[in-house]
């Protein structure tokens, strides 16, 4: 079970791979945060945003989770607009 609510039908191979990796992180918390974010946005991402997401998913789960929850500052390699969008999405999603 992937948890995804979005079909990968119609996505190119790069987006399919990213969607899968966002839903199969290593910790359930990060699966839910990145998986839901990818479900909502992956189809509309341009190449720059896809590259940014590829950088974000290279981070280890404890460090990424700590940065997304505000317990630490994000590492330079994944800090930026995309990281802030993921963080805002996590907050909005938790209120839904």
Which SSEs are present, and which pair or pack?
Blueprint: H1 13-23, H2 28-41, H3 47-56, H4 61-68, H5 81-95
Question: How would you sum up this structure in a few lines?
Answer:
With about 100 residues, this protein is mainly α. About 60% of the residues lie in helices and about 0% in strands.
Structure in words:
With 96 residues, the chain is mainly α. The protein has one domain: Flavinator of succinate dehydrogenase (DNA polymerase, domain 1). It contains 5 helices and no strands. Helix 1 packs antiparallel against helix 2. The longest helix is centred in the C-terminal third of the chain and has 15 residues. The mean pLDDT is 88.
Count of domain modules: 1
If classified by CATH, what would the architecture be? Orthogonal Bundle
Helix and strand composition category? mainly alpha
Main beta-sheet annotation? none
Distinctive features:
globular; 96 residues; mainly alpha
